Amino acid sequence: MTDKIKNKIAIFDLDETLLAGDSSRLWTNYLWDKKIVTDPHFLKLDEQMIADYYAEKLNINQYLFQHLAYFKHYDIDKINHWVNDFTETRIKPLLYPQGISIITQYRQQNIPVIIISATMSFLVYAIAKQLNADVSMGIDMQIKDNHYTGFIEGIPTFREGKVERLNQWKEAKDINYTYIYFYTDSSNDLPLCYQADHVIAVNADKKLTQVSDEKAWEQQHWDLNK
C-alpha cells in the first residue's frame, strides 16, 4: 500500500451538508422552545447571524459571545444534558441518509472521517458522535469554573480557520501527505476546498455551484427521503 493511499481522509462540513438545517439555529430554537432562554432578542440575533453568514460578513467572535451570554450562567454539565437531548430529538431526524451511508463506506475502507464545522465544538462533538466520525472540530469555547465564558479559545473553525485547524491536526499526527475528500455546501468553505484533492459540493449555495462548475468539482444533491 502506498503512502498516498494510506493517508486518505474524508472531511465533511456539517450544517446544510450532512444536516438538513443549521445546527446553531436549531440549537437556538431548542433553547427557546424549552423556555431555557425567553428573551426574543435571542432569536433575532440568530436571524442576523444567518444573514451575515450568507453575506460572508459574519463576525463569529461577536456572535458567539452574544449567543452564549443568554445561557452562560448554566454550568457545562447542565448544558451537556440539553445537548444530548437536542442531538437525539432535533438533529437525528435531519441527518441525510446519503451522508450516513458515505461515512460508513469510508470507515469500512479505514479512511478517517473528520467533521469540521463553524459551530461550537460542544454541539459538533455530540453530532459527530451520532455520525460515527473519527474526529470532530468545532469552535472551542473558553471554560472557567465549569462555565463557558463566551470567548473563543484557539483558532475558530471558520473559513480559513478550518484549513489552519486541519493543518494543526495533521502536524500533531505527523501526516506529511494526505489525499483529502471534502464535502461542503458553502462558499465560506472555499479556502478548504482549494486545499482538497477531491471536492464534492453537496446542495451547494449559488457561489459554490458557480465555482464548482468552473473547477469541474463533483456536485451532489442529498435529501431526507433517500
From TrEMBL:
InterPro entries: HAD-like_SerB (IPR050582), HAD-like_sf (IPR036412), HAD_hydro_SerB1 (IPR006385), HAD_sf (IPR023214). Keywords: Hydrolase, Magnesium, Membrane, Metal-binding, Transmembrane, Transmembrane helix. The chain crosses the membrane at residues 111-128. It comes from the Bacteria. The keyword Metal-binding applies. GO terms for molecular function: hydrolase activity. Pfam families: HAD (PF12710). PANTHER family: PHOSPHATASE RV3661-RELATED (PTHR43344:SF13), PHOSPHOSERINE PHOSPHATASE (PTHR43344). This is HAD-IB family hydrolase. It comes from Proteus terrae subsp. cibarius.
